[in-house]
Structure formats: structure tokens, C-alpha cells
Design the sequence.
């Protein structure tokens, strides 16, 4: 899935011959699942029609401050449009439009929208080779870069003038991959490794029976997705669940028992930057595993159980720079117990969920959590989807590791 999927992309088109290529650009954005709206400078309409672009983007196209077809002129709100955008792409960006953007000139709808935008702005220059090299144009590029706008460099080739050189707008495919790569490079967890445990563990009694629990694994999988969406490389160690995930940054390691999970977690912990242990690990396992299926010959059966190794505590004991997060499911003295667990297991953060809250816990799609950090700061949240809880958790972790 492209990082552009679901994003609101505003495309600003200024008046150069390369404007004809924006039909393909809109199609590519739409194909990747982005929502696309288009604003045009008046002169760009000589090169491509608003009808083509509104048809491809499935949205109205604006090029003036009002819809002045009749006497009841309607104001086109450039501020709303700019704030709607997650990404603003100006392509082609002519020397004229770039210079106006650099100087805050606001004499058309595209420029007013540009000045209102708070999102990342990309511009793809298109002009003749001498214009592209002109000192005045270089001033515009530098000014825009100093405003944190990102330039998608022009390419070399045959130009509208018949001359050959640098100045052709980057091809639509190049613009799309440039933006995708730029966003991926700037993700806050880019280059970080996140280790996650999820789901239940199954502790064998005999070849066909086990001791397990009702954990769905959903919380851990949501945390894995949220981490990967922020650019992290994720190792997801999961007990048996029905959850599925396909993401190029998520490496799933299926395990069965607490001792399998312990081994896998220790294998990956050393190189991890963050470890989030959300699995519902069995606290006890049968002391002996019967080699053959146990027959029901006796009226009662006693199983002797022994403690499993506490994975979280064992990682807390050896942690160096890793940011270690544990979960606590409590029924009484919740805050006190969670704080105690945080200290005992040497954690940086603990996520408390209480079985007293309806909608929280094992099987549901929602959770109600409280975060407690090692400095004793307590942050309480309302009942939310597990997807949103995962995003809150990652934001809290980012706050800490960036502090
Ligand atoms: N955990 C673990 N390995 C275990 C048991 C628990 O890694 N063998 C982790 C869980 O993934 C969770 C945290 O420890 O992040 C809390 O587990 P919990 O069972 O609630 O805590 P305990 O310390 O076992 O305390 P108690 O059973 O007394 O509540």
C-alpha cells in the first residue's frame, strides 16, 4: 500500500506546457488511493481544461475566488481547501508562480491557497533551460526551500522551445515516487526497530491439549501497524491468533508457548530501540507434558503447574538504551499495582487496562487505557478503538524518545 493512500492531495497547476501531464499525475494519485483536489492559475487553463481534471479527480476544480457564472457568486474558500490538504503539490511550477510564492504575492486563487497551507508543500519546476538557470529563479528556489517547501528537480531533455537541457518538469511517475520517498524518509520512527509481543500463548498439556487464554492479539497487531506506519521496522512476535497483517515493514514471528516467545524476544531485544510487550503470556505451564494423549480413565485429574519465565521482567533486567513498555491488566488497586509493576520490571512506560471498564480488555475492539511513565506521570484516556489506542501509545513513546 502506498503511503499516499487515504491522503488529501491538493494539486496546484500553473501555466506551462507541462500542465498537460497533470492529467496523468491526478490519475496516479487517485490510483494510489489518495483524495485529489485541483487548483489552477488562470493561464494554466490554456494548456489543460478544468473539466479533464475535475473528471479525473472526481472533485470540482477552482481557479478563481468566486464561481461568477451568474449573479449569485459563491466565494471559493482557499483557506478551507488549504487546510483540507495533507500534501500540496505545485506542478508544473512556472518561474512566474515560483517567484510569486517566494515573495508572498497573492494575485490568484492558487497563490492564496499556497499562503494558507500548513501542510508539506512540493513544487516541480518547469521552464526553459535558461530560465531554470537564471539567478532570479535560483533565488526563488532557495527562498522556497528556506520555507521548508520541497523541490522536485526538473529533468533534462527536449524543451518546448526546441532547445535541449534542464527544465522539463519531472515525469508524473517520478513526482509520485519522489513524494512517497520523501514522506517515508521523514517518518518519525524511520530507522528505528520496534519489538512487539502479541496474542496468547498455548502451554501444552499433551499432544492435543493446552492451557491458553482469550487474548485476540488485536492490540499488539494494531501497535505493530501504527509503528510501521511511522516508519519503524517491526518484529512482531505473536502467539496463536486469527489476526492478519501484511506490511513490508512488519516481520511476523509466530510462536506457540511462553518459552518460544521468551527465546524470540531475547533474540531481537538487543538491536531493538523500543520493545512493547502486549502479549497475554501464560504465567504457569504444566510441569510435565504428556507424550501421549491423556486418557480419561480416572475420575479426577491433577495437573502440576510451574511458573513460566517473565519475558518483560527479564528484558527489564538486561535493558540498556531500549525504551521498554509493558501492559498491566488489573482488577483492583489498579494504579498502585501498575506503578509497582513498572518499577519491579524496570519499565519506561506501562499501559494499564482495567477489567472494571466495559469495552476494555481481551476480546473487544476497544480499549480504555492509562499510561504511567517512569517519572510517575499518569495520562488517562477515554474508551477508544484499539487502532486509536495504538496511535496514542506510539505518540507517547515518541514524546519520550525525542525528549
Ligand atoms: N509478561 C511477560 N511474560 C510473562 C508474563 C507477563 O512478558 N511470563 C508481560 C505481559 O506481556 C505484560 C506484563 O508482563 O506486558 C504484565 O503481565 P501480568 O501478567 O499482568 O503481570 P505480572 O507481573 O505477571 O503480575 P500479576 O500476575 O501478579 O498481575
Sequence:
Amino acid at each position: 500500500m502506498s503511503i499516499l493512500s487515504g491522503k488529501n492531495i491538493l494539486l496546484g497547476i500553473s501555466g506551462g506546457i507541462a500542465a498537460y501531464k497533470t492529467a496523468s499525475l491526478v490519475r496516479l494519485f487517485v490510483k494510489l488511493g489518495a483524495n485529489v483536489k485541483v487548483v489552477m492559475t488562470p493561464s494554466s487553463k490554456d494548456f489543460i481544461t478544468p473539466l479533464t481534471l475535475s473528471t479525473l479527480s472526481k472533485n470540482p476544480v477552482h481557479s478563481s475566488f468566486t464561481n461568477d457564472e451568474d449573479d449569485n457568486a459563491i466565494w471559493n474558500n482557499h483557506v478551507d481547501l488549504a487546510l483540507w490538504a495533507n500534501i500540496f503539490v505545485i506542478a508544473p511550477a512556472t518561474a512566474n508562480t515560483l517567484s510569486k510564492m517566494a515573495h508572498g504575492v497573492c494575485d490568484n486563487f492558487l497563490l492564496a491557497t499556497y499562503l494558507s497551507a500548513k501542510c508539506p508543500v512540493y513544487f516541480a519546476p518547469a521552464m526553459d533551460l535558461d530560465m531554470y538557470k537564471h539567478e532570479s529563479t535560483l533565488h526563488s528556489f532557495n527562498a522556497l526551500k528556506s520555507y521548508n517547501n520541497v523541490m522536485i528537480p526538473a529533468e533534462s531533455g527536449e524543451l518546448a522551445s526546441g532547445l535541449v537541457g534542464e527544465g522539463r518538469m519531472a515525469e508524473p511517475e517520478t513526482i509520485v515516487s519522489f513524494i512517497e520517498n520523501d514522506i517515508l524518509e521523514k517518518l518519525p520512527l524511520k530507522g528505528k526497530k520496534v519489538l512487539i509481543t502479541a496474542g496468547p500463548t498455548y502451554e501444552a498439556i499433551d499432544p492435543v491439549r493446552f492451557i491458553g487464554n482469550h487474548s485476540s492479539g488485536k492490540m499488539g497487531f494494531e501497535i505493530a501497524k501504527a509503528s510501521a506506519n511511522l516508519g519503524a521496522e517491526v518484529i512482531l512476535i505473536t502467539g496463536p491468533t486469527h489476526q492478519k497483517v501484511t506490511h513490508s515493514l512488519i516481520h511476523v514471528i509466530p510462536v506457540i508457548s511462553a518459552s518460544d516467545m521468551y527465546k524470540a524476544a531475547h533474540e531481537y531485544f538487543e538491536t531493538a530501540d523500543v520493545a512493547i510487550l502486549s502479549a497475554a503470556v501464560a504465567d504457569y505451564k504444566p510441569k510435565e507434558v504428556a507424550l501421549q494423549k491423556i486418557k480419561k480413565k480416572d475420575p479426577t485429574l491433577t495437573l502440576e503447574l510451574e511458573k513460566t519465565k517473565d519475558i518483560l521482567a527479564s528484558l527489564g533486567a538486561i535493558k540498556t538504551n531500549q525504551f521498554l513498555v509493558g501492559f498491566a491488566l488489573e482488577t483492583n488497586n489498579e494504579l498502585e499495582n501498575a506503578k509497582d509493576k513498572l518499577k519491579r520490571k524496570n519499565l519506561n512506560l506501562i499501559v494499564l487496562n482495567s477489567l472494571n471498564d466495559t469495552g476494555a480488555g481481551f476480546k473487544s475492539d476497544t480499549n480504555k487505557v492509562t499510561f504511567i511513565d517512569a517519572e510517575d506521570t499518569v495520562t488517562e484516556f477515554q474508551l477508544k478503538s484499539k487502532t486509536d489506542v495504538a496511535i496514542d501509545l506510539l505518540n507517547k513513546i515518541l514524546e519520550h524518545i525525542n525528549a
About this structure: The longest helix spans residues 386-401.
